[in-house]
Design brief:
Elements: E1 2-5, E2 8-13, E3 25-29, H1 40-47, E4 52-56, H2 72-86, E5 91-96, H3 98-110, E6 114-120, H4 130-138, H5 140-151, H6 168-181, H7 188-198, H8 202-208, E7 213-218, H9 230-238, E8 243-248, H10 254-257, H11 259-270
Helix pairs in contact: 1-11, 2-3, 3-8, 4-5, 4-7, 5-6, 8-9
């Protein structure tokens, strides 16, 4: 479905169920060069098990209009505006990679309005190498090949989010190329990576959280290695916050390489 957010049409996938703001709401936020489909199994399951689901296309991505967020902070502003536009008083935020930073920053800003924050494939700081940033700007197709090589731990995990034997590497590359080609005004790969690389507010954001926090980390993730999330985890625990950490035996795309494990982690977390 579509909402008007910050003056532009925003697409939200509802998991095949009618939108109902009276139900508890889970808002899914994708990463760089992705869209709502990155969460296909997890969002659809929750939608059919009592949750109101909004899996978004960020501005300038997929079916959503507008300028893409140039910073994590702009992404958080968009999340707040979307909740207002949809009439949602309280929501759980679930973000992957760049989307995890947006979820974190939004949860810090929105306080009691956020019931849960789940960070999948996260890190802070989320540094992007100079070589990858340059490739993203000058040779984006080469950069897409690079990030998929770094991101994936297997080619076709059985079963996968799209069915047993799905070629997740090829599907991911095809999605990346489609999202990149869908916006001729902005290089979404370079702009998204730059936003990740420049975000400096992670520890301050964690310290402000008033909701439970879940980390879902890939054991062999080369894009955001598990050790790169330890600063956030330690800061949250030092503040006395409720923190869960789930490790899955895959790379950076936990939702498609370990779809059932990622879903189980979210189900358990959201039940608290």
């Amino acid at each position: 479905m579509q909402f008007q957010v910050q003056g532009h049409s925003t697409y939200c996938y509802t998991g095949g169920r009618p939108f109902d703001p009276q139900k508890p709401t889970a808002l899914f936020i994708h990463g760089v060069l992705n869209d709502h489909s990155a969460w296909i199994l997890q969002s659809r399951y929750l939608a059919h098990h009592g949750w109101n689901v909004l899996a978004i296309d960020l501005p300038g991505h997929g079916r959503s209009a507008g300028l893409p967020p140039e910073t994590v902070e702009q992404g958080a502003d968009f999340v707040a505006a979307l909740l207002d536009a949809a009439g949602i008083a309280r929501a759980a935020l679930i973000g992957h990679s760049w989307g995890s930073l947006i979820a974190l920053e939004a949860a810090a800003r929105l306080g009691e309005r956020i019931s849960h924050a789940a960070l999948v494939g996260t890190a802070f700081p989320m540094r992007v190498s100079a070589a990858l940033l340059q490739a993203a700007q000058e040779q984006p197709l080469k950069a897409i090949a690079m990030i998929n090589q770094f991101s994936r731990s297997t080619l076709a995990p059985p079963p996968s989010a799209l069915g047993p034997g799905t070629w997740v590497d090829g599907a991911s590359i095809a999605l990346n190329k489609r999202i990149l080609a869908g916006n001729r005004q902005v290089n979404l790969l370079h702009s998204g990576f730059t936003a990740c690389d420049r975000y400096a507010g992670g520890l301050e954001a964690v310290a402000k959280l008033s909701c439970p926090l879940l980390f879902v980390l890939g054991q062999v993730d080369q894009m955001t290695p598990p050790k790169a999330a330890q600063g956030l985890i330690e800061q949250a625990r030092a503040q006395g916050q409720s923190v869960q950490v789930v490790s899955v035996p895959v790379g950076h795309h936990e939702m498609t390489e370990a779809p059932e494990g990622t879903l189980a982690a979210l189900r358990g977390f959201l039940s608290t």
